[in-house]
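Give me the fold.
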Amino acid sequence: MEKENILEVRNLYVSYGSVRVIYDLNLNIKRGEIIALLGPNGAGKTTTIKSIINIVKPTKGSIFFKSKQINKLPTHEIIKMGISIIPEGRGIFPKLTVLENLYSGAIFLNIEKSLIDQRMEIALEKFPILKKRIKQIAGTLSGGEQSMLALARAIISKPELLLMDEPSLGLAPNLIDETFELIKEFNEEGISILLIEQNAARALEICNRGYILQKGKIIIEGDREELLSDDRVKKSYFS
């Protein structure tokens, strides 16, 4: 039995002023999938995920999450429904402590503090270094520790769909390996993932399907094996 779509983007157009950056984009994510969204800088990848949570407002098209249209809802309502984002640059609050950043993961959720604390313990078990840094100002953490903080905050929000924008950017090779292992672990725990990643080879290792975006248009789509065998993908990312 085919899994249902948790996210569906239909005929999406996005413009910044008079400049159109997304053209008639269609994509879907089924429950439990990791979907890679790849493409060169300026292709519209970040704009796409910002549109999903309505940080950027589409000029045309529809976005559905769990069969409910969300592109006219405010961002905090979309997050409350079960979508979380780790933006490019990690999106932590540099002047707040590690603890305050972690609690910010639940700011839009209508759940008891006891449940938030329970999720906090789970997050800190995965990232024991953060437990040691719990009172430290987040902006003073290393780049790797800030990435861990962004991932831990996502655990606390416990999304059904996680949007990840360049999670390996700027990380040392050992931390890149650790990050991709955590992405797989999140997915195994039932979280669907839309992954934007500069390291296309690593993204294609773990994704179920993928889309290649160029100048605001999807030019290639398919499952992992189809993308890995596509000459255009090989030339762009593996030559």
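The first helix runs from residue 45 to 52.
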